[in-house]
Each structure stands twice: as structure tokens, then as C-alpha cells.
Design brief:
Blueprint (H helix, E strand, L loop, with lengths): L1 E3 L24 E9 L2 E6 L3 E6 L13 E7 L2 E7 H4 L12 E7 L2 E7 L1 E9 L3 E2 L13 E6 L4 E5 L7 H14 L1
Parallel strand pairs: 3-12, 6-8
Antiparallel strand pairs: 1-4, 2-3, 2-9, 4-7, 5-6, 7-8, 10-11, 11-12
């Protein structure tokens, strides 16, 4: 099953978080794909999300960082798959029927990330996004674009371009060329 993600051209505030007047906030609205990872809510800007697919067979490859699960063939294109739990140093868990791969295309690089489940597409206002706290420990701050204040929780907004290290991008590019 493949779910293509298309940005909405509508200015409807549903399920926009915190918008009061959609017309006056049109330039400030950003659409975010929200997903779960280790019981926390994360988000990615929809403009970098190509599609969402079911977790299928992944071909393991040697001599890559441990967070690279392997490669998949996506309609004739070989793409690397990142285990986001491993990348972020979180506890590894079994996959479920909700586990998905979010295929990302950023700066000319296409790769997938394994997440526990995908929630929805949200519209957020720029004033809902706060910078990460300066004393933040744990998750490397380069991954973070900010924190989104929602009703009763906080969503961690990720920078898709920094999920793969430059070294991993170079290795995977070479492996993908060899696999095609």
C-alpha cells in the first residue's frame, strides 16, 4: 500500500493547530506530516515527504552506519532506509501493523525512515514553533527545527536534511549505484 502525500491548497483550519483567521495566516501556515516514534509525536514538513509506504522487505548492506537498515526497490529506484529509533538512540522495538516508511526527498537525496506510525497532516502557524531549548541534551540539535506547541503535548519538528550524515549519504549513494 502506498499513500501519496499532496499538500493541500485549502486554507481550512481543520486540523490546523491554533489558527484563528486562516486568510490572515496563509503565509505563516506550514503543513506537517505527524508521526509517532517511541510514544512521542514528531513532524516533518510535508514539502520534503514524497510518500508513505508499508514496511516491506529490506535488503541489508554491509559497512554502513548501524542506523541504516538497508535498501528497498521503490518502483525501480533503490533507496536507503533509516531506522529512526536507532538513529536517535532510542530503544529498538518490534514492528507492528502501524509501522510505516516515510519516503523523503531532500536536497536531491531520496531515502526512507521507519516510524512507529503516521498520524495525520497538520497545518501549523509559525507562532506555534519554538526553537529547541539551549540546554537540550539527548537528541542532537541538528535534527531539530523546533518544537510545536499543541493542545496538551509538544511535537518535535525534524530537519529531514540532517537525518542522514554526509558520510552515510556518500556511502549509500555509491551502494545504490552499484545495486541499480
Amino acid at each position: 500500500m502506498t499513500t501519496a502525500i499532496q499538500p493541500s491548497s485549502s486554507t481550512s483550519t481543520t486540523p490546523c493547530v491554533g489558527a484563528t483567521d486562516a486568510a490572515s495566516h496563509k503565509q505563516q501556515l506550514t503543513q506537517v506530516v505527524s508521526f509517532q516514534l517511541a510514544k512521542e509525536e514528531y513532524g516533518l514538513n510535508i514539502m520534503g515527504v514524497q510518500e508513505i509506504i508499508l514496511l516491506g522487505e529490506i535488503t541489508e548492506i554491509p559497512e554502513v552506519p548501524d542506523y541504516i537498515r538497508g535498501l528497498i526497490n521503490l518502483r525501480g529506484k533503490v533507496i536507503p532506509i533509516v531506522d529512526l529509533r536507532t538513529r536517535f538512540g532510542l530503544e529498538v522495538s518490534d514492528t507492528t501493523e502501524h509501522t510505516r516508511i516515510i519516503v523523503i526527498n531532500t536536497a536531491g537525496t531520496t531515502f526512507g525512515i521507519i516510524v512507529d506510525g503516521v498520524s495525520q497532516v497538520l497545518r501549523i502557524n509559525a507562532d506555534q514553533v519554538e526553537p529547541p531549548p539551549t540546554g537540550l541534551t539527548g537528541l542532537d540539535r541538528t535534527y531539530l527545527l523546533g518544537l510545536v506547541r499543541m493542545d496538551k503535548k509538544i511535537m518535535i519538528l525534524l530537519n529531514a536534511a540532517t537525518i542522514l550524515s554526509q558520510e552515510a549519504k556518500a556511502k549509500l549513494s555509491q551502494v545504490a549505484k552499484n545495486e541499480e
